[in-house]
Amino acid sequence: MQEEKLITAILTQAVEDAKYTGTSKKKLKHKVEALTWIEYNNPQFEYDCRLLNIEPNYIKSKLDRNLDARLVINKNLWQN
């Protein structure tokens, strides 16, 4: 039960970070890290989703709708 709460909190924070649309360098860095963790088949992300009976592609498809996410990764805005 405790493990599920922790994993839920981690996944929730990753999704929130990934959806960030502001200009804070610190938060943009977290956004890039979250998107990288989610989008590039990180084994830990896949494992955490499966522990909670969530299909990883469900989360990915929701984030794919956020075009801003691709802009940040492609242009590395958080480094400027």
- How many domains make up the 3D coordinates? 1
Number of helices: 5
Low-confidence stretches: none
User: Which bin fits the share of residues in helices?
Assistant: over 70%
One letter per element, helices H and strands E, the order comes to: HHHHH
- Strand % is under 5%
Mean pLDDT: 85
What kind of sheet is the major sheet? none
Number of strands: 0
Through-space gap between termini: 41 Å
The computed structural class is mainly alpha
Q: TL;DR?
A:
This protein is mainly α. Helices cover 74% and strands 0% of the residues.
Secondary structure blueprint with pairings:
Elements (H helix, E strand, L loop, with lengths): L1 H17 L6 H15 L3 H9 L4 H9 L2 H9 L5
Helix pairs in contact: 1-2, 1-3
Please name the defining characteristics of this protein.
single chain; 80 residues; mainly alpha; 5 helices; 0% strand; globular
